[in-house]
Specification:
Elements lengths: L3 E8 L3 E8 L8 E5 L8 H11 L6 H14 L3 H9 L2 H4 L12 H15 L22 E6 L7 E6 L2 E7 L4 H5 L7 E5 L2 E2 L7 H8 L5 E6 L13 H10 L20 E2 L2 E2 L20 H12 L5
Antiparallel strand pairs: 1-2, 2-3, 4-9, 5-6, 7-8, 7-9, 10-11
Pfam families: PDZ, RUN
């Protein structure tokens, strides 16, 4: 183990920030641990982990992993997460040294340099829109609507696949007049209460308890931003249409499901890449040599003049 150098700052005589750098290391990302009074044990990373484990919208390890990565990007701590992981031997045991970046010293430093660049960027991610991370990286259009107090909203709901779908709107009801929800949409939250994996009539129970109070609905749209059907709900919407042939998905009926493209398989984004070659960039593999290395490889692949 290399000795650690600590730099301590005090804010108003109470709050403390500890930054420690491994001496002799070329890593440019320090692991930063914030401690504020009674919360001295909680770092930014542990806070993100606690928020992830407490999220009731996530039911699988894959969904929680995707949520944590989005949270780390938004809070600009992904580099600290990876660096902390690389210094924790018990966690490294779970990674295969033949295929994992964190177990490969040759790739680890440029990877950390890339994460340093990401830590300078601002990711405008809607963390609350996470109910479909169990199924896919692709997220639905998410809208939040504030509704004035009323006796009844006038929504006919159907519970299917752990989701609460809007099946129909009662003629002349508050929901129909406001136009905030449409048949096929999913009610994700009511006043901050998650309906993910809700039991039958749970949404009705929540609405009954809030009768006469202002409502805040988080709605997930069945239609994606490009106008197509949001792909993770295609199967569920088809099942709803078989059960209720009168279900009308405005402005057009539900099209047949599209074949999976090459860039999305089993809910994972896949990129097709081509190996072009390699070039020597010297002993230091920081981000500053990337442009030079790319130019060398491209030069190697140019057709030779005859």
């Amino acid at each position: 183990m290399l000795p650690q150098q600590y730099i301590k700052f005090q804010i108003n005589g109470h709050s403390k920030i500890f930054i420690h750098f491994p001496l002799g290391s070329r890593y440019s990302l320090p692991f930063i641990n914030f401690s504020f009074g009674p919360f001295s044990r909680l770092s930014l990373i542990s806070l993100a982990l606690e928020q992830t484990s407490a999220c009731k919208k996530l039911l699988t390890a894959q969904g929680r992993g995707r949520y944590f990565l989005r949270l780390a990007l938004k809070r600009r701590i992904l580099g600290s997460v990876v660096l902390h992981l690389s210094h924790t031997s018990k966690l490294l045991e779970w990674y295969n040294p033949t295929i994992s970046i964190v177990r490969n010293d040759e790739f680890m430093e440029p990877f950390l340099s890339l994460l340093l660049v990401l830590s300078e960027l601002e990711f405008n991610l809607n963390i609350e829109n996470c109910s479909f991370l169990d199924d896919s990286w692709l997220l639905p259009v998410c809208d939040v609507y504030e509704i004035v107090p009323c006796r009844e909203l006038g929504m006919v709901l159907r519970y299917l696949g752990g989701r609460v779908f809007v099946l129909d709107l009662i003629e002349g009801s508050q929901a129909q007049v406001d136009g905030c929800v449409l048949p096929g949409d999913i009610i994700d939250e009511i006043n901050g209460i998650s309906l993910r994996n809700a039991s039958n009539r749970q949404a009705g129970t929540v609405l009954a308890q809030l009768r006469g109070a202002p409502l805040s609905l988080r709605v997930l749209r069945w239609r994606a931003e490009d106008g197509s059907v949001y792909r993770p709900v295609v199967r569920l919407l088809q099942e709803l249409q078989r059960e209720h042939p009168s279900l009308w998905l405005r402005p057009t009926s539900l099209p047949p499901p599209r074949q999976e493209s090459q860039c999305l398989r089993d809910g994972r984004i896949v990129y097709i890449v081509q190996y072009l070659g390699k070039a020597s960039v010297g002993m230091y593999g920081g981000k500053e040599v990337l442009q030079h290395g790319i130019a060398l490889v491209l030069e190697q692949n140019r057709p030779k003049k005859v």
